[in-house]
User: What shape does this take?
Amino acid sequence: MKQSQLFTKTSKSAPAEEQSTNAKLLLRAGFIHKEMAGAYSFLPLGLRVLNNIIAIIREEMNAIGGEELLLTSLQNPEPWKKTKRWDNSVVDMWFKTKLSNEAELGLANTHEEPITALMGHHISSWRDLPVYAYQFQTKFRNELRVRSGLLRTREFIMKDLYSFSRSQEEHEAFYESAKAAYAKIFDRIGIGASTLLTFASGGSFSKYSHEFQTLCDTGEDTVYVCKDCKVAVNKEIIEEQSACPQCKNTELKEERAIEVGNIFSLGTRFSEALGLKFIDEQGTKHEVVMGSYGIGPGRVMGTAVELFHDEKGILWPSGIAPFSCHLLAFPGGEAQAKITYEKLQQAGCTVLYDDRDVSPGEKMADADLLGMPWRLIQSGKTAEKKVVEVKKRDKETIEIMDIKTVIKRLKS
Assistant: This one.
C-alpha cells in the first residue's frame, strides 16, 4: 500500500481523556477512531491488525473441528426468558430496543441461548454430535464504566465457540483441545510468553473454569502466579484457597493482568432450559453437554500494544502487524524505492510504502509510531549502490543489504 493513498493521518497527541497506552497510540497512529465512550471504529491499518488476529484464531478453531457460522445481534427475548437471563436484575448489561409495534428485542451480549435454540433444529440423535460451532460477531454490553481503550468497550467483536457433546467425557476431551488451541493462538499472535492459563471459578458446572491472563502492569485484573507450574490463579479462587490448584504451592506472586480469553464448562444448564436433547443408541433421551469458549480480538490487539511499545510508538509482533515492513523513500531514492516496492510485492512481502512528499524526519517519526516490524530506507546513497538500509523496529542496529537479502530476511 502506498502511504500517500492512505486517508488516515497520524497525530502528535491523543485526546486528553484517554489514559491507556493502547488508546493513546492507536488513536495517534490512526489505527482506530473513537466514536463515543466505549465504541471505536477500526480504520484501514487497524482493521488489518484485527483481521490478522481473527485469521490466526479462525485457523486454530478450524484445526480442532470448529464450524464457523454467524448469528444475529438482534435477540428474541423468548430463549433468554427460559433461562431467566432476560431480566436486567440477572444480567445488568443488556442493551434493549423495541420494534415499531413495541415488541422488545435485545442486542446480544453473548449467544448461549440463541445457539442452543438453533441446535434444537439440527440435533436429535447421537449421530448428530459432537458439534463445535463458532463465530466472530459483534457484542453489545452496557458497561457502567468503559476505560482502557480497546480493553473494555460497549461494542466489540467476540470469537465465541460453543461445544455440544454427548457426555461429560466427550466434553472434557474437547475442552482440553480448546485449551491447547488457545495457547497456540496466543503464541502465534506474539503474546504467548506473557499469557498464562489461569484457574477461575467453574460456577455450578465444574470445579474450575479457565481464563487466559496476559501479565501486564496496566492490567485491571489481579492474578497470583505459581512459578513452579507456570500457571496463575485469579483473585476469586485465592480468597477460597491460598494455594495453586495444580501443585498446591502456597508461594504465589501477585501480578496485574489482562484477560484475553476464557473457557467454561456449561454442563446441561442451557440444553435443559431450552429442551436440547438427543437420543442415544439405546433410544434413551439425554440433555446435550455444553461448553463456551471466548476470545476478544480487539482486546487482544489492545493488549499487544500495552505490551509492545516504547516512547516513540508501537512495536507490532510480526504475526499480527499490518505490514511486514515500512519502506521510506528519501530524496534521491524515489526511483529506486519504486523498484524496491515492486520487488517486495512480487516476492509476497506486505509493505507500506511511504511515498509522501514530506521530510525524512516526519517519515521516520511516523514509521516509529506505526510500528511495522522492519523499516527500510531508500535514499540517494543507497539507490546509487542498489542496496537498502534496513532496521528492525525494536533494535538500534542498521544494516545495508541488497534486495534479495532483504526479502530473505523478511520471510525468515
Notes: The chain has two domains: 3-310, 325-411. The longest helix spans residues 168-189. The mean pLDDT is 96.
